[in-house]
Amino acid sequence: MKVEIYRFNLFEVNTYVVYDDTKECVIIDPGCYSENERDFFVKSLQEKELQPVIIVNTHCHSDHILGVNFLKEKYNIPFAARLEDNFLLENAQKFAERWHWKIDSDIKIDVPCQEGTIIKFGNTYLKCTHTPGHTPGGQTLYAEDAKIMFTGDTLFKGTIGRTDLEGASYEDEMVSIRNIILRFDSLYEIFPGHGEPTSVGIETTENPFVKIV
User: Fold this and answer.
1) What pLDDT sits at residue 212?
2) Chain centre to alpha carbon of residue 43
3) Model pTM score
4) CB–CB of 129/115 below 8 Å?
C-alpha cells in the first residue's frame, strides 16, 4: 500500500491518495479548490496512472469537501462518509462563506459509512471506525496489514482537533482519541487532516493533550 500526500486550499488540508499495485486508488478528504489545484491533482493522478474508485472523508467540514463533487463527476465515482455529518453538507455554503469560498450545497453521500465499513480498492481495503468529537460523524480509516491510519482533524502531531465548532464535543473527542485511536498498535503511522504524519506510539507518550502513561 502506498500513500501520496497533497496539501490544498488556504488551510493546507492533507488530501491523501492511497493505492496498491493494481493502480486503483481511494481519495481521502479532497480539499482541492482552485482550478490550478484541481488541474494539478488530476495531472498527478494521470502521471502515476492511478484510477480513483471512491472518495471517502474522515469528516465533512468545508475545507475537506471542496473537491468532492468535482472528483465525483470527473471520475464517476461515489462519495463515502458518515450520515451524522450530513448537516455539514446541507449547510456547506453557509459554513464556507466565512472563508469566501463558493461551494456546492448539494453534496450527497453515496456510501453511508458505519462501524467496520470496508473501503475497497484494488486488492486492498481500509476499514472505518467512528471517532466523533471534532464532528459528530468523524471517522478514522485504517489498514491493518500496513499499520496506517487516517485520523482527519481528530488527532494531530502533538495536539488535538478543535471542539469549539458546531456539533463538536471535547468529551467525545477525548474518548475517541484515548479509547479508540491510541489503543491501536503503537507502530501504526498516523496521517492527520493537517500537518505532518506521526504514530500511535509517539502520540501516546509525547502528546501533552492526550498522552497515556
Assistant:
1) 63
2) 21
3) 0.95
4) yes
